[in-house]
Amino acid sequence: MSKENVRLFFAALAKDDVLQNKFGEMNARLAERFKGTPPDEEEFEKLFRDELLPSIREAGFSFSAQEWKEFTEESKEVTAFSEEELDAVAAGTECIGIGASNLQDIHCPCVSSGSGVR
User: Fold this and answer.
1) Residue 51 neighbours by CB under 8 Å, 6+ apart
2) Which run of H or of E encompasses 48?
């Protein structure tokens, strides 16, 4: 498991309508549940384990909640995007932001991986 797997997951998410729909629906439920307030550490661990991880594994990926959070934090530091990432963002793919430091965070991993918009 690694943060690279998290990046690969978001890259796949950017290209797969079925995954986008699945995680988009999940994000909508979570946004409603947390009402814009990010979950605390304990809530996030449970949320990741019980709700996100089964779907992540079903999509063929495996990584920990810690790797997800580290990737999210590092994504805030990204200052340059590849041409492919810019194309994905320009295409208007909607960011789902699950697990971002804020459910509406403009620095979510979707944006950094090129699968979302700010």
Assistant:
1) 26, 30
2) none
Task: Please state whether the predicted TM-score (pTM) of the whole model is above 0.70.
Answer: no
Count Cβ atoms below 10 Å from residue 69 Cβ, excluding itself: 20
Q: Is 62 left (phi over 0), alpha (psi -120 to 50) or beta?
A: beta
Domain residue limits, the chain: 3-113
Beta carbons of 59 and 80 less than 8 angstroms apart: no
Inter-residue long-range contacts of 4-9, CB under 8 Å, 24+ positions, other chains counted = 5/61, 5/62, 5/63, 5/67, 6/61, 6/63, 6/67, 6/68, 6/71, 6/109, 7/71, 7/109, 7/113, 8/61, 9/56, 9/59, 9/61, 9/63
Q: Please name the residues in contact with 80: beta carbons below 8 A apart, sequence gap of 6 or more.
A: none
Q: What is the pLDDT of residues 37-95, one digit of tens each?
A: 888 889 999 999 999 999 999 999 999 999 998 988 887 776 566 666 666 655 554 45
